[in-house]
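Tokenised fold entry reproduced for absentees:

. . .
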Amino acid sequence: MNLPEAREKFIQSWGSLGSQWGINKTMAQIHALLLISAEPLTTEEVMEELQVSRGNANINLRELINWQLVRRETKAGERKDFFVAEKDMWTVFRLIFKERKKREIDPMIQIIHQLSDVKGDKKNPEYKVFSEVLKDLNTLTNKGDKMMDLVIKSDESWFLNTFIKLMR
């Protein structure tokens, strides 16, 4: 496989994987393109390479900036903005993990916390089952939340060393 084919396959595959991270295909494809680009790209270059509209490119670039996966740069004498992806894959992993936690886990913790105050007859089997499930979910999500915070705040060597110890 030559480089242009490999680049295209990477962009398409990263785009398909994006939906599993909670982002749309175009956003993931733009991220992939910027990841493998040797130089910063303009919005126009992103549009041309991926055959997407200006609006689509702008919205997704803005969202990638919000996720901190991409940053905007300027060049002296240039009026256009240029975009560069974070290329350290550990940092990319942590940023995606952090954003997913914020969008998926934190709201679940909030809902479980709100529902844990439900009032009812403790002798009622429905109430008892509901309360026990919420208690178990609360325990599990709090432990998961703490673990995710550790991963987000950790550096690569700490995480890998801890993971290897757990696998033994």
The CA atoms of residues 125 and 131 lie 10 Å apart.
